[in-house]
Amino acid sequence: MPVDVHLHITCPYTNELIRNVLEEENGLFTLTNSSNSTNNDILYWLEYEEIDFDTLFRQARDSNNNKKVLANSYCIRKGLIRKANFAMFIQKYLAKKPDAILRNHYPETHVLDLCHPDYLEEALNEAFELRDALEENIQGKNEPIPFILKASILDKASELCIFQTQLELEEYFTTKYNEEEDEDDDDEGNSIANVREWIVQRYIKNPKLLSTYQNRKFHLRVYVVAERNLRIYVYDGILALFASLSYDESDDQSFDRLRHITNTCAQIDTKLQEDDLVKEFFTLEELNDDIRSNIFEQIKLILNDIFTGLHNEVTIFQPLKNAFEIYGFDFLIDETNQVYFLEANAYPDFRQTGNSLSILIKELFQNIVQQIILPYFGYEQSKKDLQRQLHLVYDKQKII
């Protein structure tokens, strides 16, 4: 019998690609909008809020149930996708494993617990190492260290600030709070008044720059697929996302977003076209094969180290044997070709890939269907000649 598919992803770009890939499988999947119970196996490919996790948990526990259910998201993964939770996990992990790979591939990070600008002094006293670094920046004995502020639960480059002193940080928060108080906005979802947890990371001032692309800063968007409990794959269809303007290290103080922020959604009011902002990493000719391979190997090692630590942290990351999930991991490369992990995002925005590289996303979904979904439901993989592949980087049952 075919698998009943409940498909609803809000983004039309993503929803259509998933639908097309499932329909290629010669009737193995039947798309349905019905909630009526059938004897067919079920694939849920839905927005997180629409997944019935209670049903998923019951099915996972019932070994006598012959009906298979698979969903496209884990329930608990805040230790990975919330920046403050991840930073605290890393602090704990590195205390246990001081020689772990992540020590050299995750920027120095501090967590600020801040409910209002008036309490910034208290928050910095808790994050005393950050406070001391900001004081040293004022003293001028060494070259000032810039830091970047990020909201723990906001995405799409929301509320970013580069600063070097406590005063600059105070001015940022005060200005933002005053602006929001003056605005009559019914949408409070992205209000910083609702954000209590922030992270502050040492800003990487020496990013890799490519003259072919006008020395514009870029970061890598890497798609990572978690399967059941627990295997991790990295997709070699990696994106390079470019800023709109050439990078200028001396621009730290004015913080021109179009020079420093590489998220595609942040590139507004720019004359550059989609093809100038989004490239496939393995086609960047200015990076030779050896450099690209070295960068990819670093990414694999970083991912292995992250999930080696996370798979035991069941209160903040809890894989399910009847689920899989796609994450968008962001990495930055410095001028020495060292790779830094920045953050992970659930339900990544595939639209940023654009139309010209949509095949990259389609092949990602094709790989997931072939390597994860079909085997789960007992079907053989169909023979597809895909240019891009998933690479196993972590398996809880064995060392890769």
Quick tags:
7-stranded antiparallel sheet, D-amino Acid Aminotransferase, Chain A, domain 1, 400 residues, 11 helices, alpha+beta
3D structure, described in words:
This is Tubulin-tyrosine ligase. InterPro entries: TTL, TTL/TTLL_fam. It comes from Adineta steineri. It is a single chain. The protein has 11 helices and 15 strands. By secondary structure, it is an alpha+beta fold. The protein folds into 3 domains: 3-71; 108-202, Dna Ligase, domain 1; 207-395, ATP-grasp fold, B domain (D-amino Acid Aminotransferase, Chain A, domain 1, 2-Layer Sandwich), CATH 3.30.470. Strands 9, 10, 11, 12, 13, 14 and 15 form a 7-stranded antiparallel β-sheet that branches. A 4-stranded parallel β-sheet has the order 2-1-3-4. It has a 4-stranded antiparallel β-sheet with strand order 5-8-6-7, sandwiched between helices. Helix 1 (12-23) links the parallel strand 1 and strand 2. The longest helix has 22 residues, at 289-310. The chain is globular, with a radius of gyration of 22 Å.
CATH class of the largest domain: Alpha Beta
CATH superfamily of the largest domain: ATP-grasp fold, B domain
Number of separate strands: 15
Query: What's the CATH topology name of the largest domain?
Result: D-amino Acid Aminotransferase, Chain A, domain 1
Oligomeric form = single chain
Span between N and C termini? 36 Å
Query: How many DSSP helices?
Result: 11
Give the helix level as a range of percent: 25-40%
